[in-house]
Design brief:
The complex is a heterotrimer of chains A (about 70), B (about 250) and C (about 350). By secondary structure, chain A is of the alpha+beta class. Chain A has one domain (about 5-65): Alpha-Beta Plaits, CATH 3.30.70. In chain A, about 15% of the residues lie in helices and about 20% in strands. Chain A contains two helices and four strands, in the order βαββαβ. The N and C termini of chain A lie close together (about 5 Å). Chain B has a single domain (about 25-245), classed as 3-Layer(aba) Sandwich (Rossmann fold), CATH 3.40.50. In chain B, α1 (about 25-40) packs across α8. Chain B is globular, with a radius of gyration of 17 Å. In chain C, the strands form three sheets. A seven-stranded mixed sheet of chain C has the order 3-2-4-5-7-6-13, sandwiched between helices. In chain C, α1 packs parallel to α6 and α3 runs parallel beside α4. Classes of the chains: A alpha+beta (about 70), B alpha/beta (about 250), C alpha/beta (about 350). The interface of B and C includes residues 57 and 65 of B. β4 (about 65) of chain A pairs antiparallel with β1 of chain B.
């Protein structure tokens, strides 16, 4: 059981978290635009998250909080 | 549930101004995490460079000073010699440290100045818009080497760790990368050691972080990290180039 | 009677700095100021201070910048070509509002020039040297005693106004030996809440910085700094007047040139010429008011300088060109003789400028 929270407004949509996720659970939400004008990264299936924090490790903007 | 990962306390709340996918943010976070873990934020004084990381003084929550281009090791020397009880680090890019500030770098290392140097090598001048750096690879296309870096015309890239390792002075020289999770975790260990060395009074510790510049390399962030692996790391191999204390231990 | 010690000018600066509480010196060897570094190298380790020979003048001024930001009384010393290299750091120190003391024991220029005395860094010291809108307090000693007392004064002023104070000396006074006293020295101390000490978790982080990407913010910062400069111009100008009460001719000279000028003035008085001297002690702030007042009294000025004529421009500005100003000068390491100055005074008396 793990929980990943994104500070979505600060996401720049770089996608480094997307490629870091070993479970391929993250996507760039092309249909969304945050206050900075970027399409942010979103979690598609929290149930499957293992809380490895790989996404947060690669996030250059410190916007990901991981709980486990 | 417990929080296993969050923004470190040694960073301020200010969002980074860096381009999307710029690893400066990762490296800032690693330095801040190390400050948190060692409990030294309150006694640390950081020296920001001229370059993309110029506004690092706004991001680190410890006391900060902004140095002239390349002079961070001299500024850090001035601070550390006045306040040996404080922890002093510089955060510099390749143009800052290996071109205009090479003399300050070499001599701070030769003096074994008890400071920590975080050297971000992304093989390009980022802030000024992508010019050739002292660490740009042979053949690398930049704004000022539009036909690729011609080593016969403008010389070879400088391998800072290898060069400094010829000096008696420095305590610790390591090259790490931040192109994947494994390397980021290893980078943090090296950065932590570089700070611990200072706390233990061991002397000059430099961690060269091989990084990327997606914007000026003209690549997606993902592609840029792949290029670190395929092109940067063969020229700038990861490793510990000097560790005087470990060498002494081995000799026993 | 005050205890007097025989000291060399350069050593007097070093000893005065230590007495003023300076415990950090960063420098790079250059003639003719090496005695300062040598004195510091000997003394500092014995009093818990730091002497560090840097790899260059650029590095040394940036070490000064770091130490000043850390809240310390700190200094460096050099001579003309070395000051050019320090110009970058001087600009950053000004832009960051940290206090420092910089000594320039001038030699002839431009370029590598020579190693003999000169005053040809007047422009560099008083008009900038580094880039941007900024000022330095520039103190011009004319004796070994003043080398000491103005060094102490310089540290006080630097801390008071959070800026660089420069001792603009020359090779002659640097090498000269005279008896001096430290008994009247007044050491002032100032709180430095802006200094980098580590937050200790008790306050928001201090940032020492000269970067302002918003033009409005940079302009406001410069405006505020110039308010401070204006106050300094109104309150801190120092000068000496010599035989000015009845003078028809006013010689203006600082440093070693003023000593030569005094000899010439005594000789001219014996010839019946009513001549006096105004000696600026602060070159910035320049003692404009006293010169402007003198312009209403005398028929002309003679600026005596070891340069091609630099201070003369400030004399003309201060006197608003109300009276002619003649130049009596030597350069390249040469010093005008009393006879040369006397000749200029005679010409001025005759109305030849």
């Amino acid at each position: 059981m793990a929980k990943v929270t994104f500070n979505t407004d600060l996401c720049k949509g770089c996608g480094l978290c997307v490629s870091a996720c070993p479970k391929k659970l993250l996507v760039i939400a092309e249909d969304q635009i945050n206050s900075k004008g970027y399409s942010p990264a979103v979690m598609t299936d929290m149930e499957k998250c293992i809380g490895c924090a790989f996404c947060a490790t690669m996030c250059p903007d410190c916007i990901i909080t991981v709980e486990k | 549930m417990a929080v296993v990962f969050q923004k470190p306390k040694s960073l301020t709340d200010l969002p980074f101004h860096y381009c999307p996918g710029c690893p400066h943010g990762i490296i800032h976070r690693l330095v801040a995490e190390v400050m948190d873990e060692l409990g030294i934020e309150g006694k640390t004084i950081g020296v920001a460079p001229v370059g993309c990381a110029v506004m690092a003084y706004d991001y680190f929550a410890c006391d900060m000073i902004e140095a002239a281009h390349g002079r961070a090791p001299a500024v850090a020397t001035g601070i550390k010699r006045c306040r040996p009880e404080n922890v002093v680090f510089t955060y510099q890019g390749d143009g800052d440290l290996a071109s205009i500030g090479m003399a300050e770098t070499v001599h701070a290392a030769a003096r074994n100045e008890n400071i920590t140097v975080i050297f971000v090598n992304n093989a390009i001048y980022g802030m000024t818009g992508g010019q050739m750096a002292p660490t740009s690879l042979p053949g690398q296309v930049t704004q000022t080497s539009p036909y690729g870096r011609d080593v016969n015309h403008c010389g070879w890239p400088i391998k800072v760790c290898e060069m400094l390792s010829t000096l008696e002075g420095p305590e610790y020289l390591a090259r790490v990368a931040v192109n994947n999770v494994k390397n980021v975790n290893a980078a943090k260990k090296a950065i932590k050691k570089a700070f611990q060395n200072q706390i233990e009074g061991k002397g000059f510790s430099l961690v060269e972080v091989v990084s990327a510049c997606p914007t000026n390399w003209g690549m997606t962030p993902q592609k840029a990290l792949e290029w670190v692996e395929s092109d940067m790391l063969p020229y700038y191999p990861i490793g510990v180039y000097k560790d005087r204390s470990a060498a002494k231990e081995d000799a026993k | 009677m005050a205890q007097r010690i025989l000291m060399k000018g350069n050593e007097a600066i070093a000893e005065a700095a230590i007495r003023a509480g300076c415990r950090h010196y960063f420098g790079y060897p250059i003639t003719p100021q090496t005695e300062i570094a040598a004195y510091m190298a000997k003394k500092m380790p014995k009093i818990g201070g730091v002497f560090l020979q840097a790899e260059s003048e650029i590095a040394s001024i940036n070490m000064v910048y770091g130490a000043a930001a850390a809240g310390m009384r700190v200094m460096t010393s050099s001579s003309s070509p070395g000051i050019s290299l320090k110009a970058e750091g001087l600009s950053y120190i000004a832009g960051s509002d940290v206090p420092a003391l910089v000594v320039n024991v001038q030699r002839g220029g431009p370029g590598l020039g020579g190693i003999q005395p000169s005053q040809s860094d007047y422009f560099q010291a008083t008009k900038g040297g580094g880039h941007g809108d900024y000022r330095m307090i520039v103190l011009a000693p004319a004796s070994v005693q003043e080398m000491a007392s103005l060094t102490i004064k310089g540290f006080n002023l630097a801390d008071k106004y959070r800026m660089t104070a420069m001792i603009l000396a020359d090779g002659t006074i640097g090498q000269m030996m005279e008896p001096i006293s430290f008994e009247d020295a007044e050491i002032e101390t100032y709180e430095k809440p802006w200094a980098l000490t580590g937050t200790n978790g008790e306050r928001k982080h201090n940032v020492v910085n000269s970067l302002y990407l918003k033009p409005e913010a940079l302009e406001v910062t410069n405006f505020q700094r110039y308010e401070r400069y204006k106050h300094i111009e109104q309150t801190e100008a120092m000068w000496e007047e010599y035989m000015m009460e009845d003078a028809d001719i006013c010689v203006v000279a600082f440093g070693i040139a003023s000593r030569v000028a005094k000899n010439a003035i005594v000789a001219a008085r014996q010839e019946g010429i009513k001549v006096g001297l105004i000696r600026p002690i602060t070159l910035w702030p320049f003692p404009k008011a006293v010169l402007n007042k003198a312009a209403d009294q005398v028929k002309g000025f003679v600026s005596v300088e070891l340069s091609m004529g630099q201070m003369i421009e400030d004399v003309r500005l201060a006197t608003e060109c109300k009276r002619p100003v003649a130049l009596c000068n030597r350069c390249g390491g040469m010093i005008p003789s009393p006879d040369e100055v006397l000749e200029s005074i005679r010409n001025a008396e005759k109305g030849v400028f």
